[in-house]
Amino acid sequence: MSFPAYNSRDMMRAQYKLVTEGLHLAHLLAVAGASMGADQALQLAVLYPGFMDGILSLSGGALWSSGVLFFGPLMQSVIESCAGWENGNYEAISSTCGANAVSVLVPYFYTRDWWDTNIKTPEAFSRWRKEMGDYYLDVQDARDLYHLSKALGRAFIGDSPGFNGDAGAALGSIRARTLFIVSPQDPFLPRHMEAQVKLIPNARMVSIDSIAGHFACCGADRQATAVVSKAMRRFLGDLVRPRTR
Fold it and tell me: Is the CATH code 1.10.1740 the one for domain 68-151?
């Protein structure tokens, strides 16, 4: 718990060092991220504008709806109330602590229509819960999640060095071609996503009106998955084509 406070820029600097110094890759064709990863991909493009040719931003952006700001403190409160938390200085703690904390996000992953359509029986819920638990809910470490939730509150892209809090100027500095793939039914995203897209010089957006909402990016709607796949293939193909001529 004495680990120094960090933010998204620190995380992206660490990943940049991993890729360039650890993997010895000086340049990337594209950087992709979903949800929080979309935010971070854009942050990486601001910090290292010549490092990649393209950015794929899935179900996310540099700016979020105002309600997202409350999730970090809420998750921290859930963790702090866990039995055995001991101000984070535990030797062991139940996996339900992290699962309960990230569960505050779950109702907003999909729309109400998606829940009504796909989770109609206890058996359907059990199948969904096991799958979600295996790769997301039940694999969270409480202390790591606590640090991460605090870092998300320090993630404003306008605070990047040299931009004096101006998010528009920060986004305007991105040189990589950028593709946003979003659903207008995603409650995490603000209604002015188009404004973010317009701020980036070479950016466009594919909008998928899916009841999967935030998870339209990630396999919760077959039709949405087909649209996402087609858009990604086209985008990556356009990036590769100039290099192969």
Answer: yes
